[in-house]
Amino acid sequence: xxxxxxLSNLSSNKYLVAVSNVFLxxxxxxxxxxxxxxxAIFSQKMGWDTLSITTGYVGQMIAQMFPILINIYLSSYLxxxxxxxxxxxxxxxxxxFFLVSQQWxxxxxxxxxxxxxxxxxxxAYLSCHLIFKAQNLPIFRVDPFxxxxxxxxxxxxxxxxxxxxxVGVSTGIHCLIESIDFHFxxxxxxxxxxxxxxxxxxxxxxxxxxxxxxxHNVLHMYKTELYSLTTANIADWQNFGVDLNIVSTNFYDFxxxxxxxxxxxxxxxxxxxxxxxxxxxxxxxxxxxxSLFNINEPILFGIPVIFNPIxxxxxxxxxxxxxxxxxxxxxxxxxxxxxxxxxxxxxxxxSGYLGTGAISGAxxxxxIIIIGIGLYYPFFKFMDKRSLGVDVxxxxxxxxxxxxxxxxxxxxxxxxxxxxxxLQAQREVEKLQQEGEFILYFQPQVDIxxxxxxxxxxxxxxxxxxxxxxxxxxxxxxxxxxLMPELDFWVIERSVQMMTPLAEKNPDFKLSINVSPTTVLxxxxxxxxxxxxxxxxxxxxxxxxxxxxxxLVQDENKTSEIIKELQLLGVSVALDDFGTGYSSLAYLSxxxxxxxxIDRSLVLNLNSIxxxxxxxxxxxxxxxxxxxxIVEGVETDDELHFISLLGVRYVQGFYYYKPMPxxxxxxxxxxxx
Length: 673
Hints:
Elements: H1 3-12, H2 14-25, H3 27-46, H4 49-82, H5 86-103, H6 117-134, H7 152-179, H8 195-210, H9 215-218, H10 220-240, H11 249-256, H12 264-274, H13 278-292, H14 297-302, H15 312-331, H16 350-356, H17 359-386, H18 419-435, E1 436-447, E2 453-464, E3 469-470, H19 475-480, H20 484-499, E4 510-514, H21 517-520, H22 525-534, E5 543-547, H23 549-554, H24 556-569, E6 572-578, H25 584-590, E7 595-598, H26 600-603, H27 609-624, E8 628-632, H28 637-645, E9 650-652, H29 662-667
Parallel strand pairs: 2-4, 4-5, 5-6, 6-7, 7-8, 8-9
Antiparallel strand pairs: 1-2, 1-9, 2-3
Helix pairs in contact: 2-4, 3-4, 4-5, 4-6, 5-6, 5-7, 6-7, 8-15, 11-15, 12-13, 12-17, 15-17, 16-17
């Protein structure tokens, strides 16, 4: 596997995608917390002690919400892709997160809340995975066609069992570790003031961050010791004139953590200066203000740097080079040592000047930033050149689908590709959610000879708050956001559910469902389709899947396999919009279709000789394929007469019936109820 392939695989991994996304979704928390911290520092300088204490405490409280939100967002996403109840996933992962955090003493000292990002992610992932596995057991199975009240027993039991199992395993591991007498420390003994140990500390901090673990928290004992040594050294310098140490607590903040671990302010500026992708630049502009105050989670998880074999290299290299440069500059006297202890969120240049008391401190920071840009540049260009993307998944409310299991997912690449289009699409989807609901209409397909309805096509419609019915003009927004698989599966589930009571009395009846190419090509499409049908009383031969030529163009081999799998189940496969593509004849020779649907655009030209001749050729092509032929959009006597002369038996259109709700079809006795 090449490096590009490895990076591509990592970038498209749905779990890495989830981690990237949830950190971006929690970005407002970072912004608000940073604003509160800055207000607290400014208020303290101004002597406004009450305001300083209040905003400082609020900032701490808000910052502690970050891991909790990460846990909620990730469990929501995993519930979506694993198709498990979101309420179960969130409740279980949150309880596990709190209990295990308490058990392992991973609670913030400042605010008594869990503060481990790694545990927030791990508890959400393991909880959702356990729930997914448990749902295969009948006792825990939640029926998607039943209400939450009817499912309450299953929901409570699966939550309780999952929590007990997870906490039980954690307890066992905790007891095992406590029972072992460790004669060594996993982490090395480091001298906080040493050049070589300082380099090793910086390297270890970067390695932990490379795997999404906060290196500051893991190595906090070193930073705590260094803080004590620094304050004592500054006091001795002020009182007795002793030499200041080169390495101090702010040395890492001001010279190797400019913009956050990895000196990521250099990366942000590199993106702003050199990125070809507008979306990378958008990301950089978004996080620049945070980077100026040394907060870099959004950039670490947005590029991503975490788990990225390309960006990890400069992420480790830049701060180590910066350490050497800063240490050398201070050692040879070009820059005075840091003589004060400042807040870690102090912006660069300002912090360099205030920390050293000299303009040379700010210039040293500027040089380090420029060096960092140069070191990040070749690695970022490798990323930018290949436009390697990440699936960043936005979790929307699912109530507008009227199904607890449907989640909205958006596929975004290179942080947020086509950001403007995605935002427009998201606004439309959210507006649809707030102002109405999706419903299903059905349009009968008629046998010309018997005048009987032999099948119905499922059609998606939208009903707004005023009761007005709209056609699916919104599908482009769902396509833009990558929502079509979820929308299609909702249509499949809902239509099958609606037809279930009518299945037994209409054994030869077919329900035709149009499925988008994106959905057909999703992993395990046939398996998930069959799973839905098996939960109903419909037989597979009563179902028909309509596909378009667009699907055949995308992946011919995989499409052929899917068609065969559906037909082996007994599901009919129809080629929709036949005659509108550029390669219809080629597809007829390569695929076995049960039905061919001639597009209405050809019917509209039947008023001319050329249009009639073309239509006749298309019908003849369909007959050669040995498939049933149905003509869409028939509206007049002349159209029906010409079509019947060609031997076509089935039609669909306003001539017989418009799309209508299922209740109206039953009321007109078009099918037996």
